[in-house]
Design a protein that fits this description.
With 287 residues, the protein is an alpha+beta fold. It folds into 3 domains: 73 residues; 77 residues, P-loop containing nucleotide triphosphate hydrolases (Rossmann fold); 80 residues, P-loop containing nucleotide triphosphate hydrolases (Rossmann fold), CATH 3.40.50. The strands form 3 sheets. The chain has a 4-stranded antiparallel beta sheet with strand order 2-1-3-4. Strands 5-8 form a two-stranded parallel ribbon. 11% of the residues are buried.
Length: 287
């Protein structure tokens, strides 16, 4: 608790420093603009008085011209403030444009593959990591360092480790969410790096660490392809012990909000688990 309070206080102090700097700069600018406007008005009034005596080269002529000059000089503060505000907003918008350009320059995933697997791939579900090394950035230490193991078909394997040990990194490497540096990953003796990304990810079923539901009906969330019968869906919901909740909520046609306000986090995880079980895949991953 003390750690979070110290971190919170640090962020609040940083915010107050930046806010104080912004307020100080705004007051400084406002004072300078007001002094500039006062100087211009005073100069016009002084020239109007001095110009009526002798052969002074600068004259405003009639009192009407003096009044016109003063009326144009009075709103100079608001005009300069509007100009500076517009300039600042334009600079902020240009930062947004730069951010969009950075997103455009992000390298795209390679969609094509050199090998086209069979329609029933993976038919057994054998997973093999051979000397796999994964880094999220070249400057960071390896999340997976020369990792090798083999999971035979039909086995249920749990990977246990502390936070940051590389459990989620194994799934990222398997789904090619992050490219590996060395080694290879084989599924039924087929290198996943040679399979198209779309075909690869469609061949597996996964329950993510943070459950995600799409906005739409619950039926579409459980069976996006629409190829599963209603009896099969209810059977899977019974297996994950959430059928009673779905029936009381209105059935499979209830609308789910993307913000997941319809169900709790635990219920969303059970729905994601049911979605993974409905998918006929030999490889199922639960993070």
């Amino acid at each position: 608790m003390d750690f979070f309070m110290a971190k919170f206080s640090k962020h609040v102090a940083l915010y107050q420093k930046t806010s104080y700097s912004e307020i100080t700069a705004s007051l400084w600018l406002s004072l300078r603009l007001q002094l500039l406007a006062a100087f211009i008005i005073s100069f016009i009034a002084l020239m109007a008085v001095i110009g009526n005596f002798g052969d002074f080269p600068f004259k405003l002529g009639t009192p009407g011209l003096v009044g016109l000059a003063l009326s144009y000089a009075s709103p100079i503060v608001s005009l300069l403030s509007s100009f500076l505000t517009s300039f600042t907003e334009t600079e902020k918008e240009m930062v947004s444009v730069e951010r969009v350009l950075q997103y455009i320059d992000i390298p795209q995933e390679e969609q094509c593959g050199s090998v086209s697997p069979h329609l029933d791939w993976p038919s057994h579900g054998q997973i093999e990591f051979e000397h796999v090394t994964l880094r999220y950035k070249p400057s960071l230490p390896a999340a997976l360092n020369n990792l090798s193991f083999k999971i035979n078909a039909g086995m249920q394997v749990g990977v246990v480790g502390r936070t940051g040990a590389g459990k989620s990194s194994m799934i990222n490497a398997l789904f090619r969410l992050t490219p590996i540096c060395n080694g290879r990953i084989l599924i039924d003796n087929l290198n996943v790096a040679e399979v198209a990304v779309r075909e690869l990810r469609q061949s597996f079923a996964v329950v993510p660490q943070s459950p995600f539901l799409f906005e739409g009906s619950l039926r579409d969330n459980l069976d996006p392809s629409g190829g599963t019968s209603e009896e099969k869906i209810w059977e899977i919901l019974e297996k994950v012990h959430i059928r009673t909740l779905i029936e009381s909520a209105g059935g499979l046609d209830i609308q789910v909000k993307e913000s997941s306000v319809t169900f709790s986090i635990g219920q969303c995880q059970l729905i994601c688990l049911a979605r993974a079980l409905l998918k006929s895949s030999k490889v199922k991953l639960v993070n």
